[in-house]
Amino acid sequence: MLDVSVRDLEYIAALEAERNFTRAAERVHIAQPAFSQAILRIERRVGVKLFDRTSRTVAPTPAGTLLATRARHILVDIADAIDATRRISAANPAVYVHVSEPSLTVPRRALSALRRSCPDHAINQTTLPHNQVRDRLVSGSLTLAIGEAIHGPGLQTRLLTNEPVIVVMSEDHPLAAFDAVDRAELVQYPIVSIDSALSRWNSFVESILVMTGVAPKWSRTTTFGAATGADLVDDSDTVLICVESMGHQPPGRTWRPILPACVTEWYVTWRTDLGTRQIIDALAAEFPNS
Fold this sequence. Notes:
Elements: H1 6-18, H2 21-27, H3 32-46, E1 51-53, E2 58-60, H4 62-91, E3 95-99, H5 105-117, E4 123-126, H6 130-139, E5 144-147, E6 155-170, E7 181-182, H7 183-186, E8 190-194, H8 201-209, E9 217-223, H9 226-229, E10 240-243, E11 253-259, E12 263-271, H10 277-286
Parallel strand pairs: 3-4, 3-5, 7-11, 8-9
Antiparallel strand pairs: 1-2, 5-12, 6-10, 6-11, 6-12
């Protein structure tokens, strides 16, 4: 266990250089009485007298000179290590990625591609309320967002891929008897509602059902995402409109395509001035048809 701290080493180096308690205390930004007590405490901890004091002078002992010299080398090494760490961080900053549905296939592929292609970057995934995403991107506290297209100053957006939209239901649901489900049939049943604070998915569902002339009948329970929303279809009445990659369901559930067929689009949006070229290239390689 070390007997002295980095701050203690700064005190020793300062007093050895200044040979005066008042000036040394000013140098390390501490009150002189507290500085004097700190030197006494250090000497007690190491068990060696480091400075000879008279009413007029302060002089380091041979042990004090040795410790002060070593202390300066240590302090320089620490400063160099901190500078090197900051340089590495500046060259390979942490990447903060917003994904509203991180369990779905497209965002999982995107995050995996980033981790493989950018091993020197710390990839941090977060899920934010959708009304905060644009401002976080503009401010730079968020590096990129995967999901809907987002527009704002300094932002660029790019299509990653399209994904078909399907309907998930229980195996004994009346609609399970059909090979595909017409949109006009969907509006006859409760549709799982996704929390509008986290996602605009409900608005998308409304847009694809507007042709029926009937507003969706939302489930009484609102979920935080499509993955958890699938649990609500177990009542044999409610249906979930979601992306095709959610078609793999546990026993007791099934899915059908929607007629007329429709797709949803996955975009990536990023700040153009955050050095994200390597990141965007990694996503372009993962989604070559984007």
